[in-house]
Design brief:
Helix content is about 5%, strand content about 25%. The chain starts with 6 loop residues before the first strand and ends in a 26-residue tail after the last strand. The protein has 1 helix and 9 strands. The protein is globular, with a radius of gyration of 19 Å. It is mainly β. The strands form 3 sheets. The protein has a 5-stranded antiparallel beta sheet. It has a two-stranded antiparallel sheet with strand order 1-2.
Length: about 240
């Protein structure tokens, strides 16, 4: 049976009711490791994008949803191991310590998860934003063959990028908008987006927005496991 490609023009397109919400272990073992080993993926659902070539709000996909990308790490200096994380308008800065990702069966380390925050401007005077990236990489043992040879594609990573939502004490309060966030202010709770999947052939995954029916939710809120402090630069 031929696999359906859910990525079109670098954008993830899923039918209504479907969500891509993998665990850390699934991202590393089922997607990243298979990508590095050139094995078939469970689904063509993660596009290949150089996340450092664009600002987070310009990356493909819905900026109000979690987005996943296969990307490669570009070395900042020819003889060093530091990654180049500068974009057109700012840079990604690592925060906290890397988290070990364990196998649910063997409890061995299969990968690492690094948390980064996007800053506008140039270091060290950049302005912190609410854009968050979780960068997943394989554990070093996963990229080394029994003969001690390092795999050629070890620089592949999976990036999970999202805009951290702030909790408002008053639902009617207008959330502040950061410069460059490219996201409209949210008044109260955000309205769900519905799609008319019958408007086109079912094999066409370009979905058409329609008016939401009353009393229905239709979309699942995404919760972030990131607990970084709020942005220190709101207005400019």
């Amino acid at each position: 049976m031929e696999k359906i490609n859910f990525v079109k023009n670098g954008v993830l397109r899923l039918p209504p009711g479907f969500r891509f919400h993998p665990t850390d272990e699934e991202l590393v073992v089922q997607y990243l490791k298979r990508k590095v080993l050139s094995y078939p993926l469970p689904a063509s659902i993660i596009p290949e994008v150089d996340v450092n070539k664009s600002d987070p709000w310009d990356l493909p996909g819905d900026s109000e949803q979690e987005r996943y990308f296969f990307s490669t790490k570009e070395v900042k200096y020819p003889n060093g191991n530091r990654s180049n994380r500068a974009t057109g308008s700012g840079y990604w800065k690592a925060t906290g310590t890397d988290k070990k990702i364990l196998s649910s069966r063997s409890h061995q380390v299969v990968g690492m998860k690094k948390t980064l925050v996007f800053y506008t401007g140039k270091p060290p005077t950049g302005c912190r934003t609410d854009w968050i990236m979780h960068e997943y990489r394989l554990d070093q043992e996963q990229t080394t063959t029994p003969q001690g040879r390092t795999l050629a594609q070890e620089n592949w990573v999976v990036c999970r990028i999202f805009l951290k939502r702030r909790s408002n004490k008053n639902d009617d309060q207008v959330a502040p908008v950061q410069k460059g966030s490219r996201v409209a202010p949210i008044v109260g709770k955000s309205m769900p987006v519905f799609y008319d999947f019958m408007a086109k052939d079912r094999t066409d995954l370009n979905l058409v927005p329609v008016s939401p029916p009353s009393g229905s939710s239709g979309i699942t809120e995404i919760e972030s496991d990131d607990h970084e402090e709020s942005s220190s630069c709101i207005s400019f």
